[in-house]
Amino acid sequence: MYRNTSLYFWINDKMLQNSMVNSSMSIWPCNKSLADDIGVPIVLEYRPYDSDNMFSDLLTTNLPKCSYCSAFITSAFSIDRDKHVQCPFCGNDFQLPNSYDITYHNFKIDQKIDDFSLYLCFVIDLDCSEEYSQVLKVYFSVALKALLPDMEFMVAFIRKNRFHFVKLFNDIPKIFSFDPSISLFETLEINSLLNNVKNISLIEDLFFCDLHPNSQNNSQLHEIIDFSNLFSSCPDNTFIKFIMFSPNHVSNKCASLLSFDWISPIEKNNCQNIDGFYLNPKDIDNIEIQIQTMIQRYKTSTYAVNVSTQSFIPKQFEISPMVCTKPSYRNGSSIIFTISFPRLFSTFKEIHIQFVSNYIFILPDGIAKRRTQVNSLKFFTSKDILPILRTVDTSVVWRNLNSRNEEKEFIKKLLEIYKSKIIDGMPGTTKQFDPFFTLLPNLQWFLKFYLTNTKPINSKFVIENERKMVRFCQCVSFWENQENKIEEMSISYADSNKLLKSPPIVIVDNCTIIDLFMDDQIIKNSRLDREIERRILRRFPVPTVRIMPRETLFLRWPYKDNYDHIRETFDPTYKKM
């Protein structure tokens, strides 16, 4: 493998223009010349905070920048022996001092912060129906009981377009009401609103027995009050994460200024403009377990807050957004950048892009650090058909197809292009058609969505980068024993009788469910045990792990008729092939 080559640009086919990208690793390219012919992305997925990134750690903040555009100078710049530099973004020519030795490419600079506080704020929306209110109170109770002993939290509710805090004084609940248009931090200290984990039963009693929904505003779903002004003057050393319990939705302004995880009794698409998770019982199973895990991971997992990212690209191009700010990012979450090309760019052999992110990240032990992260990328132009098809982002295209017929016709077109332009043109290949887009895993998502008649769910749920595909096409791994994994692949082409019969351990991963087919108990701290634990810890919603006898695999083996199912569904397409 030479490099990840899943981001490409194609300008000729309107059908695939404006498609978006999800990175994936594959066996392509198979040699260096193909690796160099990778193309420029239409849309680039960038992760400002990802603990898996192998960036250089630098100790100094006094690093050279372009004197004109302020991009960081890295080894990706053209620097001659005399330290003469030309910026690939703005074209500025300048001289570096001889003392600078630019050996770094992608790097991060961390500085410890001595005083930083993270608070949770539970908010129950009582401007809803009695039916929804009762469900939300149950979810709220689950969340409170999941709090770890040293977590600092506040409790509030919305009723009649006002924001109310609940505070315990001598084990007696008191309610403080605020107009959401004022600034809370100009009125009192936030510490005065904190509650004690040991007394959550008193708070539960108040909500279940004494607080009732607003009967005047319970018939229709609506936008909740904008309480961003209430928290607008939050000190720099304080961050508040809101856990919202509501069937209603939030305004774009409020969502852009405050950090939310949202728990709802119903599915509601316009709640997905928040920066965190949106949980509802239709999208996920075992919602109470998922709520517990989400609350506990505020303490046990790391994430970044007050994130700002600036992008740099050659002045002949445009990238949007140029600057992106967001209240928080979980480990592995991404920003999508769109690149616009000049009409004539064939003279460009390579294109540089740089992302500079600044944020604070909080470790599980409570230590906070301020980080500057610089990621420098370089792409080469290409018109190769395989990288062209790799630009198709299924989840984005699928949302723009308005009917089942449009979906089917689009897949037919992709099948025809895939066969005529790739399979038939590959040296040494047979003429038997591959119905599963084996060389293009991103296109397998179309088959999954169409054949199961489902729409993609909130992509923010998929935190573990290398497991993105299991959301759409199950992954299967074969183990000789609990210390030796033989092979791992997409389940679409893992149908060999030899593989099914010989390995004593088989794992089928469907993202939210992990099935282990084995006859022995899992050995603690074995490689298999560590593998399952890693998948659980890096994923949300938390997957359910089931252990079943090895022989039951034949009864449960999914997609065993997948080939015939696809052929039958797209029969007119296959008749022409």
UniProtKB/TrEMBL annotation:
Cleaved signal peptide residues: none
Residue intervals of the Zinc finger Sec23/Sec24-type domain: 64-100
One Gene Ontology MF term: zinc ion binding
Annotated GO CC locations: COPII vesicle coat
InterPro entries recorded: Znf_Sec23_Sec24, Znf_Sec23_Sec24_sf
GO-annotated biological processes: endoplasmic reticulum to Golgi vesicle-mediated transport; intracellular protein transport
Any Pfam family: zf-Sec23_Sec24
Stored Gene3D superfamilies: Zn-finger domain of Sec23/24 (2.30.30.380)
Name under which the protein is recorded: Zinc finger Sec23/Sec24-type domain-containing protein
Source species of the chain: Tritrichomonas foetus
